[in-house]
C-alpha cells in the first residue's frame, strides 16, 4: 500500500472536523494526486459523488472496542467508524465539485489536511445504495429525521 | 496493512462472480476473523448492512485506465470499480445475516474465496446514503430501472 496523493483540507485539527462530511456542505477540499495517476480521473467528473479511502495518519493505536462521539456506550470497533481501528483505513462519501488535471475538488469534507489517499471510487447508487436498512446504535440518535447536536463541532 | 481475516465464499473463480453482490441475493459467504479481533464485532449484528474493505489478491497489475464489464469504452481507473487499481482495495456493501463468535455471515457476495479482509465498517445510511446522484457512464445501463444482462454471469 502506498499513498496515491494527499488531501488538502481546511481542517488542521481533529477536533474541528464534523463526524461525517455530509453534515457540513459548505467546506471544500481537494485531492492532489500524484501526477502519474492523473489520467485515472478521466470521466469521474460525470459522477456526482465519490468514495474516498484514506489513511488515518494521526491515529497510532488499534482499539478492539471504542466509544463513539455520539454516546458514552462502547461498541465493537467494526460497529463504529472510529479511526483507531485495525489498518486505520478511513472511508467517506464526498460530493465531487470539479476535476482539474491531477486535482479532485470536493465538498462534504471530514478529513484532516495532509491525509494520505489510498483509493478513489465512483459512488454508484445501483451498487452502493441500500434502502430499508437498520443502523444499530445510531438509529436512536437520528430518529424521525433528527440530526444530533454533536455531528458538527461547536 | 495486514489481513484481519479471510472471506470464505462459494466463488472460486473470478468469472463466476456477479459484478456486484446486490444483483445476486441467494449466495452466502462469511468472514473468518482472526480470533484477536472477534470482540470488534460486538453490536454489528444490529446493523442490516456492512461495508467490507478487502484486498484484490488475484490482481497483479495496476491500470490507470480500464474497460469495465458493462461496455467497451475505457474510463479512468477512479471512474470504474476494476480490481486492477492502485492499492488493489475492494469495497462491497453486504447484507449481514448473523454474527457468531469470530464469524460474520453475509449475503450480496461478490468476492473470491480466500480474499483477505482489511476492514469492516457498519453501513450507516445517515453517512453513506446519497439521493439525487449522477452515476456517469453507468446511468445509461441502469436507465428506468433496467438491470443489465451482464451484472450476473450466465
Structure explained in plain terms:
Chain A is mainly β. The first copy, chain A, has one helix at residues 125-128; strands at residues 5-8, 28-33, 49-55, 65-66, 75-76, 89-100, 103-107, 116-122. In chain A, the strands form two sheets. Chain A has a six-stranded antiparallel barrel. In chain A, strands 4-5 form a two-stranded antiparallel sheet. In chain A, a hairpin with an 8-residue loop joins β4 (65-66) and β5. At the A-B interface, β3, β5, β6, β8 and α1 of A face β3, β5, β6, β8 and α1 of B.
Quick overview:
The structure is a homodimer of 154-residue chains. Chain A is an all-beta fold and 154 residues long. Helices cover 3% and strands 29% of the residues of chain A.
Task: Name a few traits of the molecule.
154 residues, 8 strands, six-stranded antiparallel beta barrel, homodimer, mainly beta
Secondary structure topology:
2 copies of one chain form a homodimer.
Chain A: E1 5-8, E2 28-33, E3 49-55, E4 65-66, E5 75-76, E6 89-100, E7 103-107, E8 116-122, H1 125-128
Antiparallel strand pairs in A: 1-2, 1-8, 2-7, 3-6, 3-8, 4-5, 6-7
Amino acid at each position: 500500500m502506498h499513498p496515491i496523493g494527499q488531501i488538502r483540507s481546511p481542517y488542521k485539527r481533529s477536533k474541528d472536523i464534523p463526524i461525517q462530511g455530509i453534515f457540513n456542505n459548505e467546506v471544500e477540499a481537494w485531492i492532489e494526486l500524484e501526477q502519474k495517476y492523473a489520467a485515472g480521473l478521466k470521466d469521474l467528473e460525470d459522477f456526482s459523488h465519490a468514495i474516498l479511502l484514506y489513511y488515518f495518519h494521526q491515529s497510532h493505536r488499534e482499539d478492539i472496542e471504542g466509544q463513539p462521539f455520539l454516546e458514552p456506550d462502547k461498541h465493537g470497533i467494526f460497529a463504529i467508524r472510529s479511526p483507531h481501528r485495525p489498518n486505520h483505513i478511513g472511508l467517506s462519501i464526498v460530493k465531487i465539485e470539479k476535476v482539474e488535471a491531477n486535482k479532485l475538488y470536493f465538498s462534504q469534507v471530514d478529513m484532516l489536511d495532509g491525509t494520505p489517499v489510498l483509493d478513489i471510487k465512483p459512488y454508484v447508487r445501483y451498487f452502493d445504495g441500500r434502502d430499508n436498512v437498520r443502523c444499530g446504535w445510531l438509529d436512536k440518535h437520528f430518529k424521525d429525521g433528527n440530526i444530533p447536536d454533536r455531528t458538527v463541532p461547536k
